[in-house]
């Protein structure tokens, strides 16, 4: 009986010591997250869709997270460089990735060329989608094209003479132009890849290219200034910001394509941290400040929380992967 009391006492002392140690250790990592600045990797140069959406989002997030939200640009390879940096980052919630539609196709492009993918979609946790911006075909104001038919007919007459710029090979701005060229009977246009949507638009403004498929948000200011002319939208309906511009489907092309912007965390990020970020993104997307910023860019907030975004991403990735295969090997 004394032996039983000794065992009970030892268990009590051991349990008390463990509880005391746990209390002394303080709150868990998840309870204190975030305790310092959060970095969001922007994989594109300034001026593209990811950049113009992420910066106002970061400004709204700071007071919600009560920590600085720092935008770090890691541009290159049509967004693949920044994505790879994020995929290899410590999964602690302090390095996030803002990316666009093209994140879905990188692994498929590698497969197309017989390369081992540097990362796949499985390396990321989709957290939230903020916008789904239909692309629009725009032309330089120095060109004679007033309609998509004008551009199409001239490209048919002058193969390889018209130059279109993009954010890089198989990028989010290359794919829609390639799909349009194929749907229009295999148009032959010269491709000028750049390292982002901003530089692609700069090339168009400088008449180094004559056409570009851009997000509405990235080019609306230039449209309003009369420096570029919109010809056709890739959305399923006309844009409120560009009500006079017809859709591809209205013009007889069965093409629908959106440039969306979403936020991702590296695989392995703790579930409590993911939940904290989900709540913060949902709150940020609902603020008047963020909504106004998006309205000024010519678009509406199209927020999807993690479960809905994950489902959307699966379906959209299947479309992008199919588009990459359809385009095939290009240099």
TrEMBL record:
**What protein is this chain from?**
Tripartite tricarboxylate transporter substrate binding protein
Signal peptide segment? 1-30
Instruction: Please give the Pfam families that the UniProt record associates with this protein.
Output: TctC
| Keyword Mitochondrion (UniProt) | no
Q: Which UniProt keywords apply?
A: Signal
PROSITE patterns per record: TAT
The entry sums up its family as follows: Belongs to the UPF0065 (bug) family.
Under CDD domains, the record lists: PBP2_Bug_TTT
Question: Sorted alphabetically, which NCBIfam families does this protein's record hold?
Answer: TAT_signal_seq
Q: Where are the transmembrane segments?
A: none
